[in-house]
Amino acid sequence: MGVENNLGLLKDYQAYLRVEKGLRPLTCEAYDGDLKTFAEFLEGRQGVLVTAAQQDVAAFLEHLRAHSIDSRSAARKLSCLRGFYKWLLLDRRIHHDPTVNIESPKSWKVLPKSLAEPEVAEMLERAAMMAEHPQAQATALRDSAIMELLYAGGLRVSEITGLGTGDLALDAGRVLVRGKGDKERIVPLGRTAVKSLETYLREGRPHLARISTKPKTVPSRQDATRLFLSLRGMPLTRQWVWHLVKMANKDASPHRLRHSCATHMVEHGADLRSVQTLLGHADISTTQVYTHLALGRLKAVHRDHHPRAKTKMQDENATKGEAVQGSSLRIIHGGKGKKRAADQGENARGAKEQE
């Protein structure tokens, strides 16, 4: 009875996440897996999800730690439980949230790994050379457009595969992207990315849409409008895009290109709010992992705009000026002294000769 009760709750919660929260299927599956793990743990303690107490949640986290589950994964599972019990509380299925006052496991902030600018430039140039070949295939045009879009817009791989032809506004140099939770954002594109997409739409995509290897299969309306198609005329998968990037650079990945986009923008002076908007981060704290890259620029801004920093610099400049001026005066006075001593020597020699 307890197991059936848990399954019913999880089914209702999945519907809530998909319909009301608008979460992606993969995200819903991840939440479902975490909740089922907790439900199995409770069954071993003769409990069910609706009757879980604070002690059960604490024991679950200790169980994860004992089984060498890293703190980041444990923190994610706790976040999932908090969302679940908040929903139960709002739906009046429980009267107390067992995750209240449970401290999230401490975890190290992992700095995002990015590629150097020359590495990215080499990847993009190689893809562009293949696309610009007189006998370039439709797939080469497509691959070049994908690489440019991943780096120029900092898109997630799921956002790339979910793009439709109607999401592009190339005349305005932008694309409409649907991110996590179906949240929409406008992403600007550079001229190179726009040119690659225009060439793909004009010469590559029509060919891919025609050469489906399964002519009897009628693609759905959504599939037919997908921007990036395979040789079978079907939408590309996330795994395929991952493979494409790996083939271009074994140290790269779609997400690393996204990090590279943000990293290089910050290094060239972009503010974190702009980067947050471009990447589609819901919280600025997610974007703050790039703060360490802007320390040099932060020092320059502080030096130029903070009144105490200005005073210190003025004092240092004044000290240096005085030192230079003192050195110049010593040289001048030293020169005059030498000239005076030489004159006195000449006068002494003249007097001696007269004697």
Secondary-structure topology with pairs:
Elements: H1 2-20, H2 25-44, H3 54-66, H4 71-90, H5 117-132, H6 138-153, H7 157-161, E1 168-169, E2 174-178, E3 184-188, H8 191-210, H9 221-224, H10 238-248, H11 254-267, H12 272-279, H13 284-287, H14 295-305, H15 307-354
Antiparallel strand pairs: 1-2, 2-3
Helix pairs in contact: 1-2, 2-4, 5-6, 6-8, 6-11, 14-15
Provide the descriptors you would attach to this structure in a database record.
3 strands; 355 residues; mainly alpha; three-stranded antiparallel sheet
Structure overview:
With 355 residues, the chain is mainly alpha-helical. The chain has 15 helices and 3 strands. It has helices at 2-20, 25-44, 54-66, 71-90, 117-132, 138-153, 157-161, 191-210, 221-224, 238-248, 254-267, 272-279, 284-287, 295-305, 307-354; strands spanning 168-169, 174-178, 184-188. It has a 3-stranded antiparallel beta sheet. Helix 1 packs antiparallel against helix 2 (25-44) and helix 6 packs across helix 11. The chain is globular, with a radius of gyration of 33 Å. Mean pLDDT is 82; it is low at 351-355.
